[in-house]
Specification:
This protein has two domains: about 55 residues; about 220 residues, Collagenase (Catalytic Domain) (3-Layer(aba) Sandwich), CATH 3.40.390. It is α/β, with parallel strands linked by helices. The chain has a four-stranded mixed beta sheet with strand order 1-2-6-5. It has a two-stranded antiparallel sheet with strand order 3-4. The protein is elongated. The longest helix has about 55 residues. α5 links the parallel β1 and β2. The protein is built from eleven helices and six strands. The protein binds zinc ion. Zinc ion binds next to α7 and α9.
């Protein structure tokens, strides 16, 4: 018995002698790895994600091919194209695109064309985040609104989302020189609302410019409807629709706009910080 206990003691002490340093060594490696992960890998990952979300250095390759569908983009100089692409990627990074119709997939093309339309309108700004609107809801076709009890092609909701019918969006893009474009129209509503919402783009339109624009709206609303007029009569509905209709023409047919309504065109250039004819 005594010898058996001695044997056990010897063995356990041998176990301790041999095993403990090995365990401590392994624990040390795990602790060091965790420290490296917490101190370097994780912050680098967060930093890169933050940079990518806010300052993407380029537009991801699968998106690039679809930008050619935008005439505004095609007219840009190579350096401006790079800037446009980065802004498109930032818009894609910051917004959540949500399909609202069964079977409708939000693919790269949809994302890049919606983002590209937003950037066309706001290319004159160093940074225009559409900060209040973080969700883009896309329906296949015109959709029924329970609030207004009628069918819509698009709308901008102050709760923070922009809604589009993809069929209407495509229809607007099919003819890029008729001054009718649902995508530009709805995004223009969002741009104008950003002017009123207290954030980065709050009051980007100065008070005197807004007064001039209001006067232009009043003058336009007082005219008789003319077939073939540059601005469609829907712009007479209210100042918000007037702004949206002006934006459709500003992007799609700036030359006609400048030729026919030079003062209003110059005001649009001032408000949107760019002249599409001289970019
Ligand atoms: Zn509208």
């Amino acid at each position: 018995m005594k010898s058996y206990l001695l044997f056990l003691l010897q063995n356990s002490s041998r176990y301790e002698d041999l095993g403990e340093p090995r365990f401590e060594g392994a624990l040390g490696v795990v602790m060091a790895s965790m420290a490296i992960f917490m101190l370097f890998v994780l912050p680098s990952y967060w930093l890169w994600n933050g940079i990518w979300a806010n300052y993407p250095p380029y537009l991801r390759a699968p998106y690039r091919q679809f930008l050619r569908e935008l005439p505004f983009y095609r007219r840009l100089q190579p350096k401006q194209k790079k800037s446009f692409e980065r802004k498109v990627q930032r818009f894609i990074n910051q917004k959540q695109f949500i399909s609202r119709s069964k079977g409708l997939r939000i693919d790269h093309r949809k994302k890049v064309l919606i983002a590209g339309t937003a950037i066309e309108l706001t290319f004159g700004f160093k940074r225009f985040d559409f900060a209040h609107f973080d969700k883009i809801l896309v329906y296949s076709n015109d959709y029924y609104s329970k609030i207004s009890k009628r069918y819509h092609r698009g709308e901008v909701d102050l709760r923070g989302y922009i809604v589009l019918s993809w069929a209407a969006f495509e229809e607007g893009n099919a003819n890029r020189s008729d001054g009718i474009n649902l995508g530009i129209h709805e995004l223009a509503h969002a741009v104008k609302l950003e002017n009123k919402i207290t954030n980065r783009n709050y009051r980007f339109i100065s008070k005197p410019d807004y007064r001039m624009f209001y006067n232009a709206y009043k003058a336009f609303a007082a005219t008789a409807d003319e077939p073939g007029a540059l601005l469609r009569s829907y712009g007479k509905t209210n100042i918000h629709e007037f702004f949206a209709v002006c934006c459709e023409n500003f992007i799609e047919r700036p030359q006609e706009f400048e030729d026919q309504m030079p003062k209003l065109y110059a005001l649009m250039c001032k408000m949107l910080r760019m002249n599409p004819l001289r970019i």
